[in-house]
Amino acid sequence: MKYIDTWDLETIFPGGTKSEELQAKLKDVQNQITAYQALLNDWDYSSQSVDTFKTILNKQEVIGKGLGQAGTFVNMWHDAYMNDEHANVVKGQIMELYSEVQKLSNTFTKKLVEIPDTKWTTMLEDSDLKELSFALNEIRSEGKRLLSEEEEKLIAELNKDGLAAWSNLYDTVVSIMTIPFTDKEGNTTELSVGQAMNRMYADPDPEVRSQLFENWEAAWTKYGPIFADTLNHLDGYRITLQKKHQYKDHLEEPLEYNRMTEDTLNAMWSAVSNNKKPFLDFLDQKAKLLGMEKLGWQDVDAPVALGEVKPTQFTYDEACDFVIENFSSFGPKLADFAKHALENRWVEAEDRPNKRPGGYCTSLPEFGESRIFMTFTGSSSDTSTLAHELGHAFHSHVMKDLPTLNRRYAMNVAETASTFAETIIGNATVANAKTKEEKASLLNAKLENATAMFMNIHARFLFEDAFYKERAKGIVSEKRLNELMVEAQKEAYGDSLASYHPHFWCSKLHFFIDGIPFYNFPYTFGFLFSLGIYAEYLKDKDGFEDKYIALLRDTGSMKVEDLAQKHLGVDITKEDFWAAGIQLMAKDAAEFIELTNEIVK
Ligand SMILES: [Zn+2]
Fold first, then answer.
1. What are phi and psi of 322, to 5 degrees?
2. Which of 243, 258, 492, 526 has the fewest beta carbons closer than 10 A?
């Protein structure tokens, strides 16, 4: 093999989770934390020079990198060797250190808030602090929302049995639910929620899908009252907290977290609403191919028979070369980086037992390098995953020399580089298809993703927005939740489906995540932000790679509106930017319809 498909963990900490070097690192981090704590507690902005403040920031950097390096290593090890029980012991040690750091970061925030505005402004004029001013201002203004230390402590304690508990309760109920399924012989089996969902959306037999959908809706209806309570309390709790933290409405917190304005969010959704036609045509075409008048909710992602599709298979070497070659059509820096990562065993892709499923990219901050975890089986979708994760790694790579405070980007831009890389490879894969049938099936996969972004996630947003507004006035009944959900789905799917899923608000776990509110729109934002950048690239390819890199470098230290204005000269509070990205997908929809018309003539 030209490229080795396993990563090398020995060069990080030799000896796995029992590594002496790893224990030495953790001990070192512990000592650093103790020193940092002493320094921070003694720090007084009025009597000490700005250099002390810089030393504090420097200590944060060192501790963050050390903990990140150790934490990443243990997670990587555990994912690759799931039966190593010692991994959990070390993970526990690392968690302890993280929680100490978390407590100190609260102290740090409080100290920033105490500094008077004029003094603060002077401090930020320091040449080293200037470049950190976005991040520092952000921490300070978030800090200003906090209640007293006592109150915040109490909230953190109560969260465990409040917000987090509601989210846990949801998971528990879902884990004991079953969905019955009766096969052609009349045997009934009870499927788990995950099994039922996979089969309901992916089974080629429309009767299987429709039986499962009926039983699916019935099961969520049976447990509906529990979920209605759970959702009302989870978001009721959140609304109370948001009010106490001076947020003006339910959207301010997620928008602030994603460093964007409501105008931008509205422009994005208007562009989506005003450009649905090509995707409604795609759904119509899909119904036609499935021999149906209209698709049911359960048919939207159903496999379409497109004649004899022999999907192209790749060896790992072929996939790596394909990715590098097509990245180089975009720019040499991206291509060279991918080549370097693949040649230096940054990727764990071997198909073997005892490996966790899924894929991700993670960073080793002390090395300034990334590592990728996935299982490569030879399909074009695995090649696309490889490109996606290399995109993430490239994003970290171009930011590696920046201070940690400037490398923290929000969820909505986290998928910019990955989606961009996937777009390059996706287009190349479609162009490379050997038959019409294969091409149509690749386009279908791309369009299923697009309809998820423009319709399914749009419905989630419309529902959640409407729900929060009503919840602010009181408890929302289960019946009303169903109504809001169906209204949202009809609007998002342009009334094109034969059936809807009233209890989707309880079957979709994203509504029950306690970490951050509105877990849905950042996906559509990320997808379209990246496509919008791609559309700009197509307009003027010359020298675009450097512009792109400069944009990625600023993703952790700017509001998204400023980011797009500075690097692309576009105003993302206007629909045009978003519509240009959608147009790229609309072309795919038109091509899919044309191709499939030829195939099924
Ligand atoms: Zn990703």
1. -60, -45
2. 243
